[in-house]
Design goal:
With 280 residues, the chain is an alpha/beta fold. It has 3 domains: 93 residues, Periplasmic binding protein-like II (D-Maltodextrin-Binding Protein, domain 2); 77 residues, D-Maltodextrin-Binding Protein, domain 2, CATH 3.40.190.10; 78 residues, ACT domain (Alpha-Beta Plaits, 2-Layer Sandwich). It is built from 9 helices and 15 strands. Strands 1, 2, 3, 4, 5 and 11 form a 6-stranded mixed beta sheet that branches. Strands 8-7-9-6-10 form a 5-stranded mixed beta sheet. Strands 13-14-12-15 form a 4-stranded antiparallel beta sheet, sandwiched between helices. Helix 8 packs antiparallel against helix 9.
Length: 280
């Protein structure tokens, strides 16, 4: 089973994939990709069975590009998971903290470790394209004066050592991931025995006063619980937006009624997926 991720092996996306699917798919194969567009291109071409992409971090916010891809492409969300994000200072084996002169990682990871890095002004902090990629790079180049900020899995993947564990500023740091497949493909795994209780939707409304309020009132009347709303600009239509919402429901009927109510009011509605909500 081939699953595409954005980033290198050993990244948080890799960890999320193993956590989401590892117990059910023993022969899991990770396909690292440079950018998210490449991930989705592989999905649409059928080169991989599915993709796992982050959609939201509890501290950094939403991944806007991934909302755009979900709307643009004929894909669906099949599952979601929550991953507790732990950042570690990782070096080549045998390197001491006194030897470290430079720290590299993805800018988001670096921003989530500000207190640790600010307390060590002797470190030159430099952005890198990927957390696990930073560890891959320092190991491949044999760097003894450079550390990466990355997940524990990156250290195992590339034979590095964790010099300082848990250097993130905030312990309540979670990222929500989606398992994504082509709309035409059957379920990758059996549905949860408890049934689906969450739905992601995208909708566009006429650019008139009160239309968004009216759309949200229709969701409320259908009996679903709005848990998230996100807006994205419509390319070529300044100041017009597509709205993305997550709703929780306690019966399939309520989900169907919510979609029907929006379709009566909105100029565009797309169901991005129905799935079981992940619990922290």
């Amino acid at each position: 089973m081939r699953i595409a991720i954005q980033g290198e092996a050993g990244s948080n996306s890799h960890m999320a994939t193993v956590g989401m699917l590892g117990n059910e798919i023993p022969n899991l194969s990770i396909v690292p990709c440079n950018v998210s567009a490449e991930v989705m291109a592989r999905v649409m071409a059928g080169e991989v069975d599915a993709a796992v992409l982050p959609i939201e971090n509890s501290l950094h916010g939403s991944v806007a590009e991934h909302y755009d891809l979900l709307l643009e492409l004929e894909v669906r969300i099949e599952r979601e998971s929550l991953l507790r994000i732990r950042h570690n200072l990782i070096t080549a084996p045998g390197v001491s903290i006194e030897q470290v002169k430079r720290v590299i990682s993805h800018p988001v990871a670096l921003s989530q470790c500000r207190k640790f890095l600010a307390a060590r002004p002797e470190f030159e902090v430099m952005p890198f394209y990927d957390t696990a990629g930073a560890v891959k790079h320092l190991m491949a180049e044999g760097l003894k004066d450079t550390a990466g900020v990355a997940p524990e899995l990156a250290a195992r993947e590339y034979g590095a050592q964790i010099l300082v564990a848990g250097i993130e500023d905030n312990a309540q740091n979670f990222t929500r991931f989606h398992l994504i497949r082509r709309t035409e493909d059957p379920l990758l795994l059996p549905a949860a025995p408890e049934g689906n209780n969450k739905m992601s939707l995208a909708f566009a409304i006429e650019h008139r006063p009160g239309t968004l309020v009216a759309a949200l009132e229709r969701l409320a009347r259908a009996g679903v619980n709005l848990t998230k709303i996100e807006s994205r600009p419509v390319p070529g239509s300044p100041w017009e937006y597509v709205f993305y919402v997550d709703v929780r429901f306690d019966s399939p009927r309520k989900a169907e009624e919510a979609v029907a109510a929006l379709m009566e009011h909105c100029r565009m509605v797309k169901v991005l997926g129905q799935y079981r909500a992940a619990e922290a």
